[in-house]
Amino acid sequence: MANYLGLIANKINEIAGLVTSAGAADAGKIPALDANGKLDTSLLPTGVGADTQAIVASEALAAGDFVNVYDNASTPNCRKANATDSTKPAHGFVLSAVAAAGTATVYFRGTNNQVAGLTAGTYVLSAATAGGAVPLASGPTATGNIRQILGVATAAGALEVSIDDPITRA
User: For 5-19, what is each residue's pLDDT tens digit?
Assistant: First the structure.
């Protein structure tokens, strides 16, 4: 963590840089980059940063899973998206594993960097693996499955997410 020197009560003190912010109580403090060399989104103004929402997971989610957000007794919940079920299209993705009943940070756009083994090209929601993505050419073909573009792979471990509306196969 980065430290700096500051004058407190007429004495020079070493002060730790602020990695995350609790809001107004941290006004005037100097920020520090996190372990990844980036500013935490809590340090950014409202409306700047990742498009995320904290949502309760109704099942265990793995890092990189594409998720479906749905109404569970008037409470938003998320679960693995699944191309074999037209009620479970993808709405976003998670970058961290979450246990059932835990709170997931759902990303609605951006880079899903918790995927592996991708080749350049368009990816769609998988019918074989809930929460997974497959190349467009390997996408769902069965009647009643949904074909939903998730985004474009730009590296083996990076899917630039831009989720399209699902199309139900005839």
Answer: 888 899 999 988 888
Residue 10: give the domain boundaries.
3-43
Q: How many domains does the chain have?
A: 2
One domain, residues 128 and 149 = yes
Do 132 and 157 fall within a single domain?
yes
Output DSSP code: residue 27: T
Is residue 15 located within the same domain as residue 92?
Answer: no
The two three-digit tokens of residue 160, written as one number: 């630039």
Predicted confidence at residue 1, as pLDDT, reads 59
CA-wise closest residue to 78 among 101, 55, 96, 98: 55
Q: How far is CA 94 from CA 14, 79, 106, 109, 112, in A?
A: 37, 10, 5, 11, 8
Over residues 60-108, the pLDDT tens digits come to 999 999 999 999 999 999 999 999 999 999 999 999 999 999 999 999 9
- Sequence letter at residue 160: E
Same domain for 33 and 67?
A: no
Put simply, whether the predicted model's pTM sits higher than 0.70 gets the answer: yes
The first and second tokens of residue 19, run together, are 């990695």
3-class secondary structure, 167: strand
| Cα–Cα distance, 41 to 58 (Å, whole number) | 26
Give bridge partners of residue 67 from the DSSP assignment.
80, 92
